[in-house]
Batch of 2 targets.
Target 1
Amino acid sequence: MQLLSTDISLILEKFSIIVIVVLALLGIALYTTFAERKVAGIMQDRYGPNRAGPFGLLQPLADGIKLFFKEELIPLASNRILFILGPFIAMFTALITGAVVPWGSQLEIFDRTVSLTIAKPDIGILYVFAVVSIGVFGMMIGGWASNNKFSLLAAIRGASQVISYELAMGLSIIALLFVTGTMNLGEIVTQQMAGGLGGLLGWNIFMQPLGFLIFLVCVFAECNRTPFDLPEAESELNMGYHQEYSSLKLGFFLFSEYINMIVSSAVMATLFFGGYDIPFVDETALSAAWGNNIVAILGILMLLSKIVFFLFLFMWVRWTIPRFRYDQLMDLGWRKMIPLALANMLITGVVTLWLNS
Amino acid sequence: MSITQILFWFLSALSILSALMMVTSRNPVHSVLWLILVFFAISGHYILMNAQFLAIVNMIVYAGAIMVLFLFVIMLMNMNAETEPQKNKWLKMAGAIGSGTLLLVLVAALRDSELRGRTLEGPEGTIGLVKQLGAVLFTDYVVPFEISSVLFLSAMVGAVLIGKKD
């Protein structure tokens, strides 16, 4: 049996990393909901949740328990199987994006070098794109299966929004690929670590400022965050595509949005801000002095703090900028973002060719 | 059996089963979802041959973009199992005979072809990786590649022209 001869410890190692990443994503998402309400409170000059536990820290648990114990309603006229499948797909696709993100360099445990990336395919970025484009189905199926005109409208809005902004996103990534020459996310991080000032000057944001801006706007649209949260525009569509959902299935939809935010923050940090690179610090010299494991853990913390910064940016924008109208959204996507991304791609291509020849 | 073989049989069974389900489903939305599963299984086959780029593009373009458009059309037209027109019995029989004949011709044509007995790219193959594929596309197959890109461009221009109001 060849099956038994495979490296069992490798399988165990990967399995434990997957479990840790999934649990960490869920945990961070839980507290992102809390942070969102706190940030909103501070920006609007009020307290935010402060009743459950010290500083309201137990609020997300209370919310979770409330969602858990609510009555589970499935509309009679709905398509039962697809109605249940919708939130499942949304959650699943949100979680599996984390598979290719390099969460850290590598740890040495019991003479084994454990890489902190779950999978390192050659096509890292494209994998993220594929999962994002599959993620639309969760919203579409959920909205359609509810058999409610508002849900259907919201689902169609959401899907067309995601498809439109995927184009500009892809074009801005192509410009980035001209610079890096690889699609492997791990290699992109290693390249950025080699820059001056302990890696800071190697960050791709300095090579691709316009590309990053386009990417950021597109990420806001892909995550259905304000100012582009048209699928959930409550003044026009009641509650959007999860109108008919209740209990844990509603929780899945809301939660998957936060997990999407976290993972796209991680992708942005990896592509443009050096991933787990610590600025002003030469990692190889530091790991010679302190040992590999400590530097790796510091790197993970660095990536986490970058993610937290982006999450704050998401909330900051949400409570600052009002929602776009639907035609404005489409106009921005097709008439401004795509030409801008094309111009960025052309200029980058010409400059890269000129520098390389 | 090695892991590759187990995965191969699993994916083959999955793709054939979901293809059958796609054809036999009464509800068009279910059909689209089964078709997406078929694309996933085919992407899995590509990954078994280490054709990573092909696998992921198959997922982005077919399972992602095109199937979303299919769903759009079906959802907006509100096609349900009840509204599906019942086809004529003779029409069904003609369809079965026609496709059976096509299958017969294909099998007969491919039975003695050169493709038989050629080994496929294994899990260690590198031809499907982005670098190799790009190099081949831009050297050996540059003319067909450029012609197909012109075709895409003209399709895009046509779509924009149709989309304009007047």
Target 2
Amino acid sequence: MGKKLLLKNDHITGIQGYDVYRREGGYASVEKALKTMTPEAVVEEVKKSGLRGRGGAGFPTGMKWSFLAKPPGVARYLVCNADESEPGTFKDRYLMERIPHLLIEGMITSSFALGANTSYIYIRGEYYYVARILEKAIDEAYANGWLGQNILGSGYSLDLYVQVGAGAYICGEETALLESLEGKRGNPRIKPPFPAVAGLYGCPTVVNNVETIAAVVPIVNDGGDEYAKVGIGKSTGTKLISASGHINKPGVYEIEMGITVEDFIYSDEYCGGIRNGKKLKAVVAGGSSVPILPAHLILKTSAGEKRLMSYESLADGGFATGTMLGSGGFIVMDEDTSIVKNLWNFTRFYHHESCGQCSPCREGTGWMEKILHRILEGHGSMSDVDLLWDIQGKIEGKTICPLGDAAAWPVAAAIRHFRSEFEDYIKNPKNIRDVKHYYRLNNLVEA
Amino acid sequence: MALTKEIRFNDETMALVQRMMKRYPEGKHKSALIPILHIAQAEFDGWLSPEVMDYVASVMKIQPIEVYEVASFYSMFNLKPVGKCLIEVCRTSSCWLLGAEDVIRHLEKKLNIKVGETSADGMFTLKTVECLGSCGTAPMMQVGADYYENLNLEKVDQLVSRFKAEGKRKSYTDQPEPRSL
């Protein structure tokens, strides 16, 4: 059983409510920070912890915080990114729904560290019911003196609000999120200036993922050094993994970084192996944007070492033979999965979600979707595979925000590792009907 | 589709809208646009007509174009009339791997409409959506505030029957049904 830092009280009845959360030691980090620490000392602990952004990019949180500009007389903001939209990822919803006060507590402690007196939690619109849960928790926090004016007599004041979005993957990109929070279309901004200098309303702003902010609670409670002892190498602490697809036990698992991928997929403590006794074909390890890997490369690196659930090990081999931890959206595919149709599904997603600002992404995602659709309909030609390769290469790195890269990487990886499958579809269009690319619900198939 | 009532927030809703605009610094109340559009959509028959958008602009003292450009960007805002129950089936990655296509086909047959259409009685509109963050409980669909997860065709039938019997309009802003955790 690995160490749990965020979900350790997940099993306790009533932990959603304030009283039980407080009884189990909740809000201790706020007391500790506001009564015994300076904001700089809190930032220092986060730096020491080695915590890296849990939204997908994995950028060191302490460093991000230390970039925050502090011009006198200018408001600073902390914005929590609860826009969770990366296909395969549902950990933040799980955490907010089950332990909402952990996020509220993290927001207070983090806002104190950054000197923010107004903070926002931007949550995707589809999670409207979760926004209500957070608002209730915020009301309870106000009622018990954890929010508002002069918290705990420290002289520090904070107002916290929940802001709902309205359906747009792009708003998970931090500058698009800020645009949306300002009441505009979610078009990403050109950087620099970075939000740390000019973010919300042109003021210095930090945007952090839900899980990142929640992790600040154990970091402040136990100290950054203690947090850094958990995990492996530069992948410190625990990570919430959203496991889904063809596995026996889908769900959210808090893992200590450094366990093996094999253990994660096959052990009963986690995914419990592949459903229906099938064989593993491929895994998308960190949300739909990261490169897909075939079974042999996800279980072992190209050097033959066991691959671990950590930023470094999953990235071992670069994009040639490795992938990324990303958001921890772990999608498992069994031997019957059609990689071609799966890729079509992903490209359609990116085409749908492209904001349309940059031509390579706006046009390229649509072309890729259409080409894949043509192949699936039996009208593909051999040159289509090279064309797909060419288009993805012309999107990657040529757009304002990373959505372009996110759309390009899955295409490149699928062709890199499964080229023959694409060629099969093209060479034998008559056989496409026989390919098991249509998924049926178990035992509930209509006649 | 004619609106069933005058385009005006009632006093209670207006008070809520005014409170929402105060969540932001002086002069930045435009930030409340998306939350207010959610309320307007729920209040005025589940969609944002040009008249409703103009009304929101007047309440917020912003230009109508500022409302149109936002309403047309986000997938949860309907710019055309929809049925009382907008059924949104997730079709991305894990939901697709676990049978979303079956759910969609089944609903098309059962409701006798195609994706994007509204049933003749105005009760149902069927829509497919991208990942709703419920991959571990796939396949799933959203109706109003509620997520219906781990679907199978039997469950879908039961839900459709229930919605029909209730005959109520479903909105994202509704009080959600109790969920077992």
